[in-house]
Write a structure and sequence with these properties.
Layout (H helix, E strand, L loop, with lengths): L2 E2 L9 E4 L3 H6 L6 E2 L9 H7 L6 E4 L4 H12 L4 E4 L2 H7 L16
Parallel strand pairs: 1-5, 2-3, 2-4, 4-5
Length: 109
């Protein structure tokens, strides 16, 4: 499974957050697309509408386990997808901004 570290992500990279609603509300990366893993198959069209046609999908969850499964699924569908190693825990630990619903600073559950 292809992975990238948080340090490898650049501003403007497409980020798909597959955590559940309560995790998302507590804190997420600004600009990420949120589709919980539990809803992913039913909402796959939301991703295909939002993702760049020729770009990579960076999939993230809390620690990297759920996002690895979703990234593997996306690769099987022919998309260029990678798992973000360490997930939102690594994101926050690296000092990247985390926002809660409403735009206030958040924290990762």
């Amino acid at each position: 499974m292809p992975t990238v570290g948080v340090a490898d992500l650049k501003d403007g990279d497409f980020l798909l957050d597959v955590r559940e609603d309560d995790e998302w509300k507590a804190g997420h990366a600004r600009g990420a697309l949120h589709i919980p893993m539990s809803e992913f198959v039913a909402r796959y069209a939301d991703l295909t509408e939002a993702a760049p046609q020729d770009g990579r999908v960076h999939v993230i969850c809390r620690s990297g386990a759920r996002s690895a499964q979703v990234a593997m699924y996306l690769v099987q569908q022919g998309l260029d997808a990678v798992n973000v190693d360490g997930g939102m825990q690594a994101w926050q630990d690296s000092g990247r901004a985390v926002v809660a619903d409403g735009g206030a600073p958040g924290h990762v559950l």
